[in-house]
């Protein structure tokens, strides 16, 4: 960001626009901002708790398998003959209108011991006629599953089952009820929750029942709260309904479900999107995933609860259950059907389904119409325009009043839509955006301008030496954190074999070792007016030419590289005294056009450089090992820093590049180069010339002389090896003398 008064209005506009775009992207579900979503959930729960009716709906009664029932009737699961008796009592004695089970019967009831008796009949007692006759007579009374299935026949009973978004070891247990529709016939079905396995009821039970629905919730919010629940899921190319929807349709005589869809918004890959369900004269608003907002009436107890043991023993008054919709579920903690909801932290899962059924009957489901997104985006844009064009023109006191009025109006309008129109609109996004943009106006108007120098130090101090920060503060030059393209020089420094070194050291000792390496190297870079870009483990990345323009950036970088190698001698002595392994360093330097500025994400941002020239600098550092040198620079750096003497190493193509470049090793400032070094350079240049002209014999002779004179130098054996290869396999006719490196 540029620190100049004439840019203040532009920055204020850009800041407001950027934040608004982020909020709009979050509202449109193109970007997820977790904190904002948590705030939205909190405000949703607040609105819900504030507006719940807190009355008891007598139409729906919950038969509760509570702690009392478990104590009197025995632990769960109960025998199916007892459940059959429960169903018979509910329909024949209490005359209930509809019965639903928020439990699943996926395993056969073997408590009667029929299997054991049949083993005896086919084994030791197979010739006992009396035993076989008695067994055949008693069999119907001992088949509890058959008794339960018979009690369900020809009665309005809806069984529950659950699905899973993961593939279980046994992916299909029991029998699913008939689907609502074929998924392939409806373009919106890919947006429904796609389940991969299920545990349903025994086939004989599901076949006997009138309907069935899933009771699990594949759309629990990130904080584990049950705010919404899908009415439809997609399993195996079929659309299945939730328990609450199955109860609702069974109550109405199982009418057909009509799907209301919208066109031309959201995911462009989907032709149409689900907006609602039409069942006879009832309209059910859902989102594109088939999910509806649970219409909680209040805390647990919004529906009459009757203990299951009281029903079994005929204690309950007939009038409490006559012509009622009954759902069998549990509130016992040990049966694990307790949920976290916006109205209560511990809430019986069965009552969630009762709330949905009640809301379907009363048509009190909150909705998010297809047009509401456009309204919300327009709302956020309006707040942005107000912040940009109205707040800056107002005195502080008046702007505070306008801000307060807007904030209260926004909250009031949101509650009005919720309570009167049954429309759910976002609240956290507009009020947070309003507060942020108002804060930005205050920041730019009363704080930022007067704190320019201090902000500059805070922003650049972590990258560059304090002396440079002070120089920038005193300069009239405008400095920018915004991305721009500049001619700069980048340096990469890395410790060789660090992985091997680190494997044999304790963490605390390794941390001390890294600090002892990076501290003197960083000091050298700062003294050379370089900017530390980042530390990458044992490596350092630095650059010259930003944030302050420096026409000698290449010379400063090369000088820093040579100084690092000098500091390495001291580092090695210190390490030897501490008994640490000896280290070596590789340095790569390149000069060229680079993009520099604050780059990153909404979570972390840094002042850094990017571009091909930066990548090449990293590649050059990687080549130092292969050529047995400690520092390599590119030809562009050589041209920008001619006051140094360089040894030409090679003409190469690095990985990811097709155009060859010439690489060099800096030997030092030209004035300090010895006569012997100059002779070596002259001889090397002759050898390179012969090599590239494919004069193999002449080049080989020269490199052999150099290798003999400098046996520790790894460069000359490299060329001797290449020449030997080319003598056997000559290069292509159009060979340009470049060597291609396939590794970074």
UniProtKB/TrEMBL annotation:
The keyword DNA repair does not apply. GO terms for molecular function: adenylate cyclase activity. Residues 489-621 form the Guanylate cyclase domain. It comes from the Bacteria. GO terms for biological process: cAMP biosynthetic process; intracellular signal transduction. This is Adenylate cyclase. Belongs to the adenylyl cyclase class-3 family. GO terms for cellular component: cell envelope. It is found in: Cell envelope. Keywords: Cell membrane, Membrane, Transmembrane, Transmembrane helix. PROSITE patterns: GUANYLATE_CYCLASE_2 (PS50125). The keyword Transit peptide does not apply. The chain crosses the membrane at residues 371-391, 398-421, 427-448.
């Amino acid at each position: 960001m540029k620190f100049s008064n004439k840019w203040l209005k532009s920055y204020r506009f850009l800041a407001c626009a950027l934040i608004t775009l982020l909020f709009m992207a979050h509202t449109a579900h193109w970007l997820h901002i977790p904190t904002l979503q948590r705030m939205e959930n909190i405000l949703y729960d607040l609105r819900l708790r504030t507006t719940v009716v807190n009355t008891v709906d007598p139409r729906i009664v919950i038969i509760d398998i509570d702690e009392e029932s478990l104590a009197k009737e025995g632990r769960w699961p109960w025998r199916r003959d007892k459940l059959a008796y429960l169903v018979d009592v509910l329909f024949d004695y209490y005359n209930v209108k509809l019965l639903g089970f928020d439990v699943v019967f996926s395993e056969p009831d073997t408590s009667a011991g029929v299997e054991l008796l049949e083993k005896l009949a086919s084994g030791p007692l197979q010739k006992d006629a009396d035993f076989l006759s008695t067994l055949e007579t008693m069999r119907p009374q001992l088949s509890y599953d058959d008794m339960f299935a018979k009690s369900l026949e020809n009665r309005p009973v809806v069984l529950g089952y659950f699905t899973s978004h993961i593939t279980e070891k046994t992916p299909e247990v029991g029998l699913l009820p008939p689907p609502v529709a074929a998924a392939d016939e409806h373009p919106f079905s890919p947006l429904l929750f796609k389940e991969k396995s299920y545990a349903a009821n025994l086939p004989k039970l599901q076949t006997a029942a009138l309907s069935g629905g899933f009771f699990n919730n594949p759309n629990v919010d990130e904080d584990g709260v049950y705010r919404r629940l899908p009415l439809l899921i997609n399993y195996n190319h079929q659309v299945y309904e939730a328990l609450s929807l199955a109860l609702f349709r069974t109550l109405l005589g199982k009418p057909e479900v009509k799907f209301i869809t919208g066109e031309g918004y959201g995911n462009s890959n989907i032709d149409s999107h689900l907006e609602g369900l039409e069942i006879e004269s009832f309209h059910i608003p859902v989102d594109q995933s088939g999910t509806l907002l649970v219409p909680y009436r209040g805390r647990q107890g919004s529906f009459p609860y009757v203990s299951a043991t009281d029903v079994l023993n005929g204690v309950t008054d007939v009038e409490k259950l006559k012509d009622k919709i009954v759902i069998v579920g549990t509130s016992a903690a040990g049966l694990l059907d307790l949920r976290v909801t916006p109205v209560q932290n511990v809430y019986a899962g069965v009552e969630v389904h009762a709330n949905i059924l009640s809301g379907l009957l009363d048509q009190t489901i909150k909705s998010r119409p297809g047009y509401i997104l456009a309204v919300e985006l327009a709302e956020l844009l309006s707040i942005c325009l107000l912040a940009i064009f109205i707040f800056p023109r107002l005195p502080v006191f008046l702007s505070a009043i306008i801000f307060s009025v807007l904030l209260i109006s926004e909250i009031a309008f949101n509650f009005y839509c919720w309570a009167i129109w049954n429309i759910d609109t976002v609240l956290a996004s507009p009020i947070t955006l309003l507060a942020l943009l108002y804060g930005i106006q205050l920041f730019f108007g009363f704080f930022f301008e007067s704190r320019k120098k201090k902000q500059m130090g805070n922003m650049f101090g972590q990258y560059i030496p304090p002396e440079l920060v002070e120089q920038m503060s005193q300069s009239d030059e405008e400095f920018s954190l915004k991305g721009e393209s500049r001619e700069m020089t980048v340096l990469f420094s890395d410790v060789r074999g660090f992985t091997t070194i680190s494997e044999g050291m304790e963490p605390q000792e390794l941390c001390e070792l890294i600090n002892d390496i990076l501290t003197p190297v960083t000091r050298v870079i700062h003294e050379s007016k370089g900017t530390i870009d980042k530390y990458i483990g044992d490596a350092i990345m630095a650059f010259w030419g930003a944030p302050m323009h420096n026409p000698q950036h290449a010379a400063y970088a090369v000088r820093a590289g040579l100084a690092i190698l000098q500091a390495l001698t001291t580092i090695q002595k210190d390490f030897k005294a501490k008994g640490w392994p000896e280290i070596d360093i590789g340095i790569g330097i390149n000069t060229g056009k680079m993009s520099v500025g604050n780059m990153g994400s909404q979570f972390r941002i840094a002042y850094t450089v990017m571009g091909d020239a930066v990548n090449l600098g990293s590649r050059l550092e990687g080549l130092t090992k292969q050529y047995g040198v400690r520092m390599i620079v590119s030809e562009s750096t050589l041209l920008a820093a001619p006051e140094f003497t360089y040894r030409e190493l090679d003409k190469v193509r690095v990985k990811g590049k097709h155009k060859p470049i010439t690489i060099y090793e800096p030997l030092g400032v030209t004035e300090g180069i010895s006569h012997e070094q100059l002779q070596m350079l002259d001889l090397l240049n002759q050898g390179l010339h012969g090599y590239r002209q494919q004069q193999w014999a002449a080049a080989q002779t020269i490199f052999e002389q150099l290798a003999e004179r400098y046996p520790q130098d790894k460069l000359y054996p490299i060329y001797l090896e290449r020449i030997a290869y080319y003598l056997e396999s000559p290069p292509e006719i159009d060979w340009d003398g470049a060597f291609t490196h396939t590794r970074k």
